[in-house]
Specification:
The chain has helices spanning about 15-25, 30-35, 40-50, 55-75, 105-115, 130-140, 155-175, 200-205, 210-215, 235-245, 255-265, 280-285, 295-310, 315-325, 335-350, 355-370; strands at about 75-80, 95, 120-125, 145, 180-185, 220-230, 270-275. With about 375 residues, it is an alpha/beta fold. Helix 1 (about 15-25) packs antiparallel against helix 6 (about 130-140), helix 4 (about 55-75) packs across helix 5 (about 105-115) and helix 10 packs across helix 16. The longest helix has 22 residues, at about 155-175.
Length: about 375
């Protein structure tokens, strides 16, 4: 592999043994074991880690077992649709709605493996790879760094970075033979309204040729929708939105991202469904090819949004929230389900301003309203 992408790429096989040594020697390894592998002794986890000498070995011996454990402990079932229609000999760019920092992509990896498909590489914000332990765990698990521009970034720095990431995505899919997972937007959806940022589409195009429909077509974009019965970090999201709507400048507290990661992993999620849509082809994109860049990006983002929305799995909680907000019963739910949901909402917003409850209900209701 060229060293052009050494600053962002996942680890290579030959880098795995040293990474495993660093992980098991890290001062926070005992706490990580207790949280992620509660049924195993620390020595057994360390032994498994040190037996991994390739990326595949790490994914199968550590990550596959870990994700399976999270599914068993915190969900009432992880189901899937659409992956069986994908070609095992092709590599894809999975563009997904984003509800949980880690689990959206993690669940996809398990489902890909179960379907006999290769796992994908995963776009991961550099701000989340904080510290050597997370860097080693992430890059060993086929994650590559996406350094998001800050408000202090110059336009030139911004353009250099997104061109670099764009080139790596195209290189991984078209030359290295790896699929890629990426969120449809910068950061998680907080309000339940999943919308693809046009800048993401523009980034995909930057590494291609002048024929934009051909350029995107060869990436084999697959829209993906993940639906949680209980929204990950729903209270944390509602409080953040409340702060923003109140006009307060929202500044993340130290460790806030890590807290969201751990909350998402450990809290009950109910039923979870992941749906993969039909790949977007060059023929799908050809009608937009003569449009100006901005209009082209908007049309493609809209196409992805439409397909993701059509793939939603709506649960009673979504219909109950929509009913509580609008007074209209837009789907079926039982009195028992209503009582359970109302008790959950009441617990989450206890001691909070009434506006927080409205925001929390919208998180659950908006997928119903958007779907309609």
């Amino acid at each position: 592999m060229t060293n052009t992408f050494d600053d962002i790429r996942p680890y290579l096989d030959e880098e795995i043994p040293a990474a495993m040594q660093r992980i098991v020697s890290h001062k926070h390894f005992p706490q990580a074991c207790a949280l992620l592998f509660p049924d195993l002794e620390q020595a057994e986890v360390a032994e498994r880690m040190l037996s991994c000498h390739t990326v595949d070995a790490f994914q199968w011996r550590i990550m596959y077992e870990l994700i399976g454990s999270i599914v068993r402990r915190t969900t009432q079932g992880l189901t899937v649709s659409g992956l069986d229609a994908l070609d095992k000999d092709k590599r894809y760019l999975f563009v997904s709605n984003h509800r949980d920092i880690v689990l959206d992509a993690a669940f996809l990896q398990k489902l890909l493996a179960d379907a006999g498909l290769p796992t994908s590489e995963i776009t991961f914000g550099a701000n989340l790879m904080d510290g050597q332990l997370l860097i080693d765990l992430g890059r060993s698990n086929k994650m590559f760094r996406f350094v998001r521009p800050t408000t202090a970034s110059s336009y030139r720095d911004f353009l250099i970075q997104i061109r670099h990431v764009s080139a790596y995505i195209r290189y991984a899919i078209c030359q290295k033979g790896e699929s890629i997972w990426i969120a449809q937007r910068n950061g998680r959806t907080k309000d339940g309204l999943d919308m693809t940022e046009q800048g993401v589409i523009n980034m995909f195009c930057l590494s291609g040729g002048e024929d934009r429909s051909q350029s995107l077509g060869e990436l084999h974009i697959v829209p993906v929708a993940i639906s949680y019965e209980w929204e990950p970090c729903d209270k944390l999201k509602a409080l953040e939105l409340f702060a923003r709507e109140s006009g307060e400048p929202y500044v993340k507290k130290p460790g806030e991202d890590l807290n969201s990661i751990l909350t998402g992993i450990t809290q009950p999620k109910g039923r979870v469904h992941l749906a993969a849509g039909k790949p977007i082809t060059e023929e799908d994109l050809r009608p937009y090819n003569m449009l100006p860049n901005g209009d082209f990006n908007r049309k493609v983002a809209g196409m992805i949004d439409q397909r993701i929305t059509s793939l939603y799995r709506l649960y009673p909680n979504n219909y109950i929230a929509a009913w509580m907000l609008s007074g209209k019963k837009l789907g079926d739910f039982t009195p028992e389900q209503q009582q359970t949901f109302e008790a959950h909402v009441g617990k989450q917003v206890q001691g909070c301003p009434e506006k927080v409850k409205e925001i929390l209900l919208k998180i659950y209701a908006n997928p119903v309203l958007r779907n309609l």
